[in-house]
Sequence to fold (347 residues):
Amino acid sequence: PEEPLNPGFQSGLHRHRIAGQDWRSMTLTDAGRGIQVQVGMSRTSLNRQFADAVRASLVYSFVILAAQCVVVMVIMMLTARPLRRLERELQARSEQDDGPINPMGMPLEVTPLGHAFNALLLRSKASREAQRQFIADAAHELRTPLATLRLQGQVAMRSRSREERELALRRLQEGIDRSTRVVEQLLDLARTEHAAAPTLEDVGLQRLAQTLVQDCQALVRRRGVALEMSVPDEVMRTQPALLYIALRNLLDNALRYSPPGSTVRLVAERNPVGGWTFFVQDEGPGLDDAQCEKALQPFVRLHRNEESGSGIGLAVVQRVANLLGARLTLTHAVPPPGLRASLHWDR
Fold:
């Protein structure tokens, strides 16, 4: 400007109004050399330069952002190509094709997804195989008792004397009871097969024991076996329906294989370090070590008698134990003979 920026030449940063405009100036003084330097710029020029810098920054930022978007889109297209191939492969599969997918050619980031999907296919295949096996076994187990019921019904219809008719009807009733128990155990097996994580509740053990005694009375009378309970009047936190299923099947198994005049015992004990132990002990033929392992498999019957069951009970108990976090063990009764089935909770 025509006027001095800083007439007094004071060193430092200053602001002045010259010719109607705001100016900012900087003054430096070297007294030893007698040199003074002043630089300045009007507010209008500063605003213009700032606006130009902002516009340039916005343009550069937009260009960089657009370039990044293009790069990201290209990377996503290249990465998604194996996924689209996987999608086409899965859509082209039939419902019966449950073989693993080929993870070759997938990016490293996507390869774990392929392995996880193959693991899911294996679990799904195992589940379908188990369901098919269950249906086949259930059909086999029900076919014989249903044929027996039909035969006994025909015998009753053709009976000429009252004694023959009553005998046929009594055997028909026994067959119905056996078939009902088979269906109940099949339903228990299916229910435990697909059960979700159990909801825990407080269960009164004395009341549970009374319910078990009542439900086993018919079999107790028919077998001529004594049933003893040693259960404390305490509360256990568990899933009541599943615990009932496990103990009911253990008692059913023990009562069916106990000889007349013997005793079946159900005992519940609290462990010294926490948790519970339930065991059912009978005076039947018992099992050796190899048979104890086989007995936990579904539809396996190791002893035959007039009350032989379907071979499902212990398998149901094993699955219930897994759901409740318990451990099922089969050992020799003390004193022998007999079998001791124990459900143990560590806590």
Notes: The radius of gyration is 42 Å. The longest strand covers residues 21-30.
